[in-house]
């Protein structure tokens, strides 16, 4: 009996491990597009977009499908840097919307995309827990050693922007952690593990009241441009261009600004 | 009949390693290795994984003993619970740890109020996250060894006047030592590669919480080549340590 | 230091319930078929199997309330269970160490014991380097090292090959003679039991069916199991003087008694005839040959008929009689070799 139960475990464990591993890796993998490239008649547009665009682009995708019956839009949301790597490694994408010019540059340098257009900008805010335990009011408060601060790691766009803003303000902040992406940074604030963090305004709005956003003037010195481009080998061709047009249209702007993004001309 | 799938399995396991080796930036390798941040992350990784393994041994071996030797109601449930960290995505594990041991967590709140201890963003936090994720490997391995061990040796020790503790220390433990070592090795390897729970619970800061896997992940964002170098260092060091341990411990029984 | 015990262990579809009384210096063997409960009884004495009832008293002290590690016992297991990671010396020193004897002293005592069992030269050997006979002696030394008042041996010779067994058996007998406590051993081998024990207790289905000195048990078996063990044909009948009626057969016996009785005779005492012998000897019946097999230097013939019986005859006799299975044959046994005793 004992032996049989043990052997069941022995089988179940590797299987469980394999499943856990699969689900962990699967989400980041690009979905292969099965579309044929006949001009304009594409049935599927595959969009690789920065994770911060998840809400807005999903909404725009539905609008696009409504306007172009028979065409579906598939998204692969993730870290811009990861997406850029995937595109360079040959992932079959039609459109790339990045959270920073640097990540877009990875793709354009490889001559895989046409000239990108900046479609929105995102601005940093100080995010504090709803009850603001450290009574943070301005950027200067983050330099207090007793205030626990989380920043994004410099390697990811929100971290680069944070460094730029802090430099501009001449503020020396020693964070307790450098998070791997903006969502992780925000989570630390939501859970109250840190007293403040620098994250995008859009993320503060998306958190729906769990964190409070505080504007600060130096944020204007570290505005993040979001470029979008159709890819040179876009299997969907014309449909891909039409999707980019939708993002750049007034309709697109409305959806994006509602989420906290700023229009590029609104400086 | 078995050789073909065996070879296929080996190729499947080894090919990604070959990929890393082929794409490694060999000319600049030494230069990159000399960077103090790399050594710092490596040192932190080895220290944390080793301490986490020690913690797992201290808590996991008695737990395995309880599961294997003591018949109590709900044992099946407890056994299933022990494996939770295996199935749980590590990031979720990290969040769960925050909810309990974080500054506003159930226990963490009390820890801070009573002792002034906060665990997130500290090296201790890294060790806790690694131990949480790696402990099931040890418990399952040791429990298996305990179930495989002939309990009559323990009875024989009892007839010679050995107390439960003496039986465990002088008879059971030496007899299941190969299983304990195997479990500890798995546990250590898992702790060494731990990423999700660590970055979520302990955060990422050079010198205190940035272990090699975290450094690799961040390097991947901007400099894939640096990430490859870091991965190879981690791999080489762990292989050397495990191989030397194997010769010493897992030789002839 | 007398052992008084009533051992009750209840399991689904099995109940052990036996009374034991063993004097100091006495060696008692629990003998019985597989599954009779003899090992269970030994484990209950050791405290390794929980009793459902009864009690154990040794020298007037209750033992059954103590856990195994607190009982003044030494136990030799069937496959010895020497700790594989310890040397022979440390195996023997294990018990004294558990009793708090300092290490050097425990080792000195262990070395002395190993010398006593003739293994002084093997002190450093690991159990897997020992032969079966050596391992058995180390196991005995380990059990004696705790200076037990009650020595328990579970099939102490069963794991040995025939040759080693002979040698180890006589050595074990000597060591048991030297031991002044109570010894209970379990065996299913009648020869081991006869050589090693002062008294046999036969257990079947969890109950004692017969006990007595080896001689008594060997001469006067009271169950089919014991009769087979000691190699006798056994029947139950009704005695009237020197006549015992078994089913339809009337046996004339060497003993005189009245009432329910056992009749026993050795297979070698049975004579076989192709045709009804002249002079009408007593104790004669007609049987069918059920089987023929070699039995030592002789041939054992299985007889069916009014009574089932074994007959041991010489190979020459088999040839002379031209025996084949299924054949009808006459069998007889002399009255002087037929024993009767009260049932």
UniProtKB/TrEMBL annotation, chain A:
Q: Which PROSITE patterns match?
A: PROKAR_LIPOPROTEIN
What UniProt keywords are attached to this protein's entry?
Metal-binding, Molybdenum, Signal
**Biological process GO annotation list?**
molybdate ion transport
Q: In the record, which residues are listed under signal peptide?
A: 1-20
UniProt-listed InterPro entries: ModA, ModA/WtpA
At the top level, the lineage of the source is: Bacteria
Q: Name one GO molecular function term.
A: metal ion binding
* Residues noted as binding molybdate in the record, renumbered to the chain: 52, 80, 182, 200
Q: Which PANTHER family match?
A: MOLYBDATE-BINDING PERIPLASMIC PROTEIN, SULFATE-BINDING PROTEIN
Q: What does the similarity note say? A: Belongs to the bacterial solute-binding protein ModA family.
Q: Which NCBIfam families match?
A: modA
Query: What is this protein's record name?
Result: Molybdate-binding protein
Q: Species lineage, top-down?
A: Bacteria, Bacillati, Actinomycetota, Actinomycetes, Streptosporangiales
From TrEMBL, chain B:
Signal peptide positions on this chain: none
What's the superkingdom here?
Bacteria
Q: Where this protein primarily resides, as one coarse class? A: membrane
Entry annotated with the keyword Transmembrane helix: yes
Tell me the GO molecular function terms: ABC-type sulfate transporter activity; molybdate ion transmembrane transporter activity
GO cellular component terms listed in the entry, alphabetical order: plasma membrane
Where are the membrane-spanning stretches?
Answer: 44-68, 80-101, 121-142, 171-191, 226-245
Annotated ranges, domain ABC transmembrane type-1? 42-245
Please indicate if the UniProt record lists Calcium as a keyword. Answer: no
State the membrane topology. Answer: Multi-pass membrane protein
The UniProt entry, under InterPro entries, shows: MetI-like, MetI-like_sf, ModB_ABC, NifC_ABC_porter, Sulph_transpt2
Tell me which UniProt keywords the record has, alphabetically.
Cell membrane, Membrane, Molybdenum, Sulfate transport, Transmembrane, Transmembrane helix, Transport
Give compartment(s).
Cell membrane; Membrane
Q: Which family does it belong to?
A: Belongs to the binding-protein-dependent transport system permease family. CysTW subfamily.
What is the role of the protein in this entry? Part of the ABC transporter complex CysAWTP (TC 3.A.1.6.1) involved in sulfate/thiosulfate import. Probably responsible for the translocation of the substrate across the membrane.
Q: How does it assemble?
A: The complex is composed of two ATP-binding proteins (CysA), two transmembrane proteins (CysT and CysW) and a solute-binding protein (CysP).
Q: What is this protein called?
A: Molybdenum transport system permease
- UniProt organism field: Nonomuraea cavernae
TrEMBL record, chain C:
Domain Mop spans what residues?
278-342
Q: What is its EC number?
A: 7.6.2.9
What Gene Ontology molecular function terms does this protein carry?
A: ABC-type quaternary ammonium compound transporting activity; ATP binding; ATP hydrolysis activity
> Transmembrane ranges?
none
Entry keywords, A to Z:
ATP-binding, Molybdenum, Nucleotide-binding, Transport
Q: What GO biological process term is on the record, naming one?
A: molybdate ion transport
Domain ABC transporter as annotated: residue spans: 3-230
One Pfam match: ABC_tran
| Listed name of the protein | ABC-type quaternary amine transporter
> From what organism does this protein derive?
Nonomuraea cavernae
């Amino acid at each position: 009996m004992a032996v049989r139960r043990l052997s069941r475990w022995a089988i179940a464990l590797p299987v469980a491990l394999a499943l856990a591993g699969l689900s962990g890796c699967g989400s980041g993998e690009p979905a292969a597009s099965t579309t044929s490239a006949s001009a304009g008649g594409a049935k599927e547009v595959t969009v690789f977009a920065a994770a911060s665009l998840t809400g807005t682009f999903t909404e725009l995708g539905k609008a696009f499908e409504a306007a172009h019956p028979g065409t579906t839009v598939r998204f692969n949301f993730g870290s811009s840097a990861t997406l850029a790597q995937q595109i360079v490694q040959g992932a079959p994408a039609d459109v790339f919307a990045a959270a920073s010019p640097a990540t877009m540059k990875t793709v354009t340098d490889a001559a895989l995309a046409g000239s990108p257009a900046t479609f929105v900008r995102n601005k940093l805010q100080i995010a504090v827990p709803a009850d603001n335990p450290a009574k943070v009011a301005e950027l200067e408060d983050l330099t207090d050693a007793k205030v626990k601060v989380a920043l994004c790691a410099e390697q990811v766009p929100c971290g680069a922007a944070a460094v730029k803003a802090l430099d501009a303000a001449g503020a020396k902040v020693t964070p307790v952690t450098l998070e791997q992406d903006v969502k992780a940074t925000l989570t630390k604030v939501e859970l109250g593990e840190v007293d403040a963090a620098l994250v995008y305004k859009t993320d503060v709005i998306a958190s729906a009241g769990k964190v409070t956003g505080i504007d600060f003037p130096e944020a204007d010195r570290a505005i993040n441009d979001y470029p979008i481009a159709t890819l040179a080998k876009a299997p969907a061709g014309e449909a891909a261009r039409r999707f980019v047009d939708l993002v750049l249209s007034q309709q697109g702007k409305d959806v994006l600004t509602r989420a906290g993004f700023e229009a590029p001309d609104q400086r | 009949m078995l050789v073909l799938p065996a070879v296929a399995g080996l190729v499947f396991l080894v090919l990604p390693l070959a990929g890393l080796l082929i794409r490694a930036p060999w000319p600049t390798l030494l230069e990159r290795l000399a960077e103090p941040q790399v050594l710092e992350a490596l040192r932190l990784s080895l220290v944390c994984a080793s301490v986490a393994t020690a913690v797992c041994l201290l808590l996991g071996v008695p737990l395995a003993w309880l599961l294997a030797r003591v018949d109590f109601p709900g044992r099946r449930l407890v056994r299933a619970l022990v494996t939770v960290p295996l199935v749980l995505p590590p990031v979720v594990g990290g969040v769960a740890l925050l909810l309990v041991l974080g500054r506003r967590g159930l226990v963490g709140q009390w820890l801070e109020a009573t002792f002034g201890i906060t665990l997130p963003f500290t090296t201790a936090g890294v060790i806790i996250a690694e131990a949480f994720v790696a402990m099931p490997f040890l418990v399952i391995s040791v429990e298996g060894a305990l179930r495989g061990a002939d309990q009559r040796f323990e009875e024989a020790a009892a007839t010679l006047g050995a107390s439960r503790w003496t039986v465990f220390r002088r008879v059971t433990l030496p007899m299941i030592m190969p299983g304990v070592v195997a479990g500890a090795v798995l546990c250590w390897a898992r702790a060494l590669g731990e990423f999700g729970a660590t970055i979520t619970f302990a955060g990422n800061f050079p010198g205190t919480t940035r272990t090699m896997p975290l450094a690799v992940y961040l390097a991947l964002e901007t400099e894939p080549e640096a990430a490859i170098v870091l991965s190879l260092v981690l791999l080489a060091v762990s292989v050397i340590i495990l191989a030397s341990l194997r010769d010493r411990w897992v030789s002839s029984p | 230091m007398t052992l008084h015990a009533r051992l009750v262990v209840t399991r689904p579809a099995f109940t052990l319930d036996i009374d034991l009384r063993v004097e100091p210096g006495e060696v008692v063997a629990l003998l019985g078929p597989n599954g009779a409960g003899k090992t269970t009884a030994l484990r209950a004495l050791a405290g390794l199997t929980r009793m459902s009832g009864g009690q154990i008293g040794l020298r007037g002290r209750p033992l059954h309330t103590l856990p195994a590690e607190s009982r003044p016992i030494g136990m030799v297991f069937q496959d010895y269970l020497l700790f594989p990671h310890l040397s022979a010396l440390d195996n023997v020193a294990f018990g004294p160490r558990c009793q708090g004897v300092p290490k050097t002293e425990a080792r000195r005592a262990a070395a002395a014991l190993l010398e006593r069992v003739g293994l002084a030269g093997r002190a450093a050997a690991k159990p897997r380097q020992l032969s079966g006979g050596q391992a058995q002696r180390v196991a005995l030394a380990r059990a004696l090292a705790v200076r037990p008042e009650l020595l328990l041996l579970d099939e102490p010779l069963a794991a040995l090959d025939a040759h080693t067994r002979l040698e180890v058996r006589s050595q074990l007998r000597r060591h048991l003679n030297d031991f002044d406590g109570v010894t209970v051993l379990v065996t299913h081998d009648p020869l081991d039991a006869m050589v090693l024990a002062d008294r046999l207790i036969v257990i079947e289905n969890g109950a004692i069916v017969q006990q007595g000195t080896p001689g008594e048990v060997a001469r006067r078996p009271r169950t089919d199991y014991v009769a087979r063990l000691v190699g006798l044909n056994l029947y139950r009948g009704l005695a009237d003087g020197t006549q015992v009626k078994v089913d339809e057969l009337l046996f004339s016996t060497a003993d005189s008694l009245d009432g329910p009785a056992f009749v026993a005779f050795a297979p070698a005492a049975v004579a076989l005839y192709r045709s009804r012998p002249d002079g009408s000897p007593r104790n004669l019946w007609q049987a069918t040959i059920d089987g023929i097999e070699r039995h030592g230097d002789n041939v054992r013939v299985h007889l069916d008929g009014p009574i089932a019986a074994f007959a041991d005859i010489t190979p020459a006799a088999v040839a002379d009689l031209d025996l084949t299975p299924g054949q009808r044959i006459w069998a007889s046994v002399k009255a002087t070799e037929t024993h009767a005793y009260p049932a």
